[in-house]
Design brief:
By secondary structure, the chain is of the alpha+beta class. The chain folds into two domains: 2-118, Thrombin, subunit H (Beta Barrel); 181-308, predicted glycosyltransferase like domains (Thrombin, subunit H, Beta Barrel). The protein has helices at residues 2-21, 105-176, 180-186, 196-202, 286-308, and strands spanning 25-35, 40-49, 53-58, 69-76, 79-90, 95-101, 206-216, 221-230, 234-239, 250-257, 260-271, 276-281. The chain has a six-stranded antiparallel β-barrel with strand order 1-2-3-6-5-4. Strand 5 (79-90) and strand 6 (95-101) form a beta hairpin. The longest helix has 72 residues, at 105-176. The radius of gyration is 46 Å and the shape is rod-shaped.
Length: 309
């Protein structure tokens, strides 16, 4: 009994190896399955087919187990085949694997030719689908690249328009510059009117060393740096990084001096090197102007005292 069980197990393993070694071709067609012992015919669908056997699916639960003699009738490319076989396995539900037995040489050759045609047809379809998928992917990539290019172009156009607007605003401010002394004279406080000598001195730049931040309005950028010198009309700043825009760009300078916070609007008046720029203040209120003047005067007095010592 042990030898019989071993022979049976060996036979199953051999059948499994043969079933896996022979390529199977996917099909979808009608098949009539006759259970020889019971004389019962079952309508099934063929799932895949090879030279050694086929896999079928019944509409309901498959009524037989494994190692049952059957006859299988099906068509491949219009050619009818009827082979004897054995149920090699079932899944306990509605699928079964059939192994062909005693296939005549002539019918075997016809099956070889039919399967070769089906395989070639499937390969052609797969190649066509792969080519269509590749073409769709290339089209999608080209469309994405075009969208990205258009986005970059729109951003560049927007930036160029903002730059032109800033230059126009700076030019307008420059045209108003000759009128500023008269306007400033009308807004002078009594303290500023005491000495014309003092007025002349505050226009000069005084060296300072304090941290500052340049806010570039048009591109919403923030550049940290240090103020090198300061006057009522503007300042010179050394940025920590390379300055990214050109002259006549609108900007705001934010800094603290002697405990007072300042945020003054202006325009880039000069670019001394890749990190150092000069900023001219615009539209400064009379109160802010007075504060800057007093701070510069204090800085000058401290410097003069140090020099005398």
């Amino acid at each position: 009994m042990a030898k019989a069980a071993a022979d049976k197990a060996e036979g199953r393993a051999t059948g499994e190896q043969e079933r896996r070694a022979v390529p199977r071709i996917s099909l979808d067609g009608e098949v009539r399955l006759l259970l020889v012992k019971h004389g019962v015919s079952i309508a099934c669908r063929i799932i895949d087919l090879s030279l050694k056997g086929c896999r079928v699916r019944s509409q309901g639960r498959f009524p037989a187990g494994s190692m049952v003699r059957v006859e299988v009738a099906f068509k491949v490319r219009g050619i009818a085949f009827r082979f004897c076989g054995i149920t090699q396995w079932t899944d306990g539900q509605n699928q079964a694997g059939i192994r062909f037995v005693d296939v005549p040489a002539r019918r075997y050759g016809e099956l070889v030719e039919a399967l070769a045609e089906v395989d070639a047809e499937n390969a052609a379809k797969a190649a066509e689908q792969a080519a269509a998928k590749l073409a769709a992917e290339r089209e999608a990539a080209a469309k994405l690249a075009a969208e990205q290019e258009a986005k970059v172009r729109r951003a560049a156009e927007k930036e160029a328009a903002a730059q032109r607007a800033a230059e126009a605003a700076a030019a307008k401010e420059a045209a108003r510059e000759p009128l500023r002394p008269a306007i400033a004279a009308q807004a002078e406080t009594p303290a500023r009117a005491k000495s014309s000598g003092r007025e002349r001195r505050v226009q000069n730049r005084e060296a300072v060393n304090t941290s500052a931040v340049i806010h570039l309005i048009n591109i919403a950028s923030r550049l940290p740096g240090r103020i090198l010198d300061l006057s009522v009309d503007g300042c010179r700043i050394c940025c920590e990084d390379r300055f990214p825009v050109g002259i006549y760009t609108r900007a705001e300078v934010e800094f603290h001096l002697d405990g007072l916070p300042f945020r003054l609007g202006g325009v880039i008046q000069a670019i001394h090197d890749k990190r150092t720029v000069g900023i001219r203040f615009l539209d400064m209120s009379s109160r802010r102007r007075e504060q800057i003047e007093l701070l510069i005067e204090d800085i000058r007095e401290v410097r003069d005292m140090e020099n005398r010592e």
